[in-house]
Amino acid sequence: MLNRFITVVVLIPLAVILIALAVANRAPTSFTIDPFNPGNPGLTITLPLFVLLFIALAIGLIIGSLATWLRQGRYRKLARKRDAELAAVQKATPAPAAPADARALPRPNA
Asked: What is the pLDDT of residues 24-82, one digit of tens each?
């Protein structure tokens, strides 16, 4: 149910907007890395504007994801430490005795 909601409310409108953006920005655009000599063909690439926008979006998503992952590192480390401590405590604690009903049951002959 939640997946269908996300698809209908978020992904379909986003796809429509991205398709409209791509259709409206098909003209070739020059992107240069050298701001002092924009005519340098070695540092200039010509692509449709929507491709450059999608590349910028992808780079932003990657940088944002990496920043989030790095900032949450201490929480992952703390969670691993707590899991290790919990496992050590559970390993040191003896298993609970079987219920009284289980002891009363006859054991099969082996």
From this structure: 888 888 888 888 887 788 888 899 988 998 999 899 999 999 999 999 999 999 999 99
Q: Tell whether the model's pLDDT for residue 110 goes beyond 60.
A: no
Cα 94–chain centre separation:
40
Answer whether 29's CB lies under 8 Å from 48's CB.
yes
Backbone angles phi, psi at 84, to 5 degrees: -65, -40
> Which residues make beta-bridge pairs with 32?
44
Q: Which of 60, 63, 52 is nearest to 21 (CA)?
A: 52
Rg (CA), the chain: 30
74, β-bridge pairs? none
| Encoded amino acid at 85, one letter | E
